[in-house]
Amino acid sequence: MTAPSPAEWSDFVDRFEQSSLTQPAFAQRYGLSLSCFRYHLYRLRRLRGSATDLLPRPLPVRAEPSSLSFLTVALPGAPLDPAPALAIELGARLRLRFERLPEPGVLADLVAALVERLPC
After folding, report:
1. Alpha-carbon gap, residue 42 to 47, rounded angstroms
2. pLDDT of 78
3. Higher model confidence: residue 28 or residue 51?
4. Given pLDDT bands bounded at 50, 70 and 90, which one contains residue 99?
5. Are 49 and 69 in the same domain?
6. Alpha carbon of 77 to those of 31, 73, 74, 80, 102: distances in Å?
7. How far apart, in whole angstroms, are the C-alpha atoms of residue 16 and residue 27?
8. Residues 111 and 71 both lie in one domain
9. Residue 59 resides in a domain
10. Domain that holds residue 102
11. What confidence tens digit (pLDDT) does each residue in 30-81 have?
């Protein structure tokens, strides 16, 4: 496959924005390198200048109603309680801390969704 032209990259980005696919699923469907697709996606979003385009899409998380509970969200720079039951760090930008251990299925879905959405 030859490298897509700038117009083709723009078309791919437009198609992606209209789809409900994740970046990896979209890149795989169209035979694109994920890293190249992300490069052009983010570059075109910056060039188009829409700040709302830079916001991540909501993450689908499945949970049973009985396992749902209120989660405290700490703002950056706020002091954290010592010794959480579980702490997960995904890169420098994302840190999750749980006072109690969540159900394994809920945790697996959450981590999978987050890892899929994190930029390179």
Report:
1. 9
2. 56
3. 28
4. confident
5. no
6. 41, 12, 8, 9, 25
7. 9
8. yes
9. no
10. 65-117
11. 999 999 999 999 888 888 875 454 555 555 656 555 555 555 655 566 555 5
Q: Which helix (H) or strand (E) holds 27?
A: helix 23-29
Would 13 be classed as within a structural domain? Answer: yes
Query: CA-to-CA distance for 67 and 103, rounded, in angstroms?
Result: 7
Considering only CA atoms, which of 55, 54, 62 is closest in space to residue 112?
Answer: 62
Reported as a single tens digit per residue, the pLDDT across 7-18 is 899 999 999 989
- Reading the block at residue 30, the tokens are 């169209």
Rounded to whole angstroms, the Cα distance separating 37 from 119 reads 11
Query: Is the model's pLDDT at 24 over the cut of 90?
Result: yes
Rounded CA gap, 16 and 25, in Å?
10
Contact 45, 53 (CB under 8 A): yes
Has residue 92 been placed in a domain? yes
* Single pTM value for the model: 0.42
**Do 42 and 86 share a structural domain?**
no
**Number of residues that make up the chain:** 120
String of DSSP letters for 3-36: PPPHHHHHHHHHHHHHS---HHHHHHHTT--HHH
CB atoms within 10 A of CB 12: 20
